[in-house]
Amino acid sequence: MKSITMTAKTVEEAVELGLRELGVDRTEAEIEVVSRGKPGLLGIGSEPAKIKVTKIDNPSEVVQVASDVVSKLIRLMDIDVISTMRHIDGDDEGPFFDIEGEDSALLIGRRGETLRALQLLVRTIVGRKLGTNLNFTVDVEGYDDRRRQSLSNLADRVASRVIKTGRSIELEPMSARERRIVHISLADQKGIQTESSGEGKDRRVVIKPSQ
Q: Which range (65-79, 83-97, 122-136) has the least confidence?
C-alpha cells in the first residue's frame, strides 16, 4: 500500500492534500494524525499539522459504508472535528474510526453517554445499509480505549481487595458493554467470581470471593 506524509496549517487541510495527492477519497485510505500542530503566538513557534495517508488497494464494504456514514453525520452536526480511519495489526474488531478536533468533547458527553449513542447510531445505519452487523470501532479522542483500560485496571484492583478481605464489592453502575469488559478482565482470575446485579441504569458488577 502506498503511503505519503503531508503537512499543512490544519489536520483537515493536510488530509485533503494527502487524499488529493493519492487520488483517493476517505473510504479508500487509512489516515493517521502524527501531530495536530501548534498555532503559536503571532505566528512565532507555530508548527504545521502532520498526517500520514495510506492508500487502501481494495477497501472492504464495511470500510466504505462506515466511512461515508461517519463523514456525513459529522457534516450534519456542523462541528469542528474530523474522522480518521486505520486498521490495527492483529485486531479482529475491524477498522477503527477515531474522531478528534476542537468540538470532540461534545461527542463524548457525560461519562461517554453521547459517544455510546453515536456508536449505536453509526452501527445501526451501517447494519441496515449492509443488511448485517460487521465489526468496526468508532471512538472520539481515544476515549473508549482509555475507558476500557481504566475499567480493566479498576477490576484488577478491586479483585485484589476482595481476595485480601474475603468480602464482596459492588462497582458503580455501568452500561452493558462496560460490565462485559469487567467480566472478561476477571474471567481467568483465581479466587474471585463476578456477577451482575440491579436493574436498568443501576445494574452493576459485583466481585465476590469464589465459593
A: 83-97
Could you tell me if 49 and 37 are in contact, meaning their C-beta atoms sit under 8 angstroms apart?
yes
Contacts of 79 (CB under 8 A, 6+ apart): 101, 103, 106, 107
Backbone φ and ψ of 63, nearest 5° = -65, -45
Q: What is the mean pLDDT of residues 122-134?
A: 86
CA distance 149 to 153: 6
d(CA 196, CA 206): 6
d(CA 158, CA 115): 26
| Burial readout 45-71 (b: 16 or more C-beta within 10 A, e: otherwise) | eeebbbbbbbbbeebeebbbbbbbbbb
**AA identity, residue 147:** R
Which triple of cell numbers denotes residue 46?
507555530
Tell me the per-residue pLDDT of 46-85, one tens digit each, with 9 for 90 and over. Answer: 788 888 888 887 777 888 888 889 989 998 998 888 888 8
Distance CA 182, CA 78 (A): 36
Query: Which residues lie below 8 Å from residue 11, measured CB to CB, with a gap of 6+?
Result: 33, 36, 37, 49, 51, 82, 100, 101
Q: What is the phi/psi pair of residue 66, to 5°?
A: -65, -40
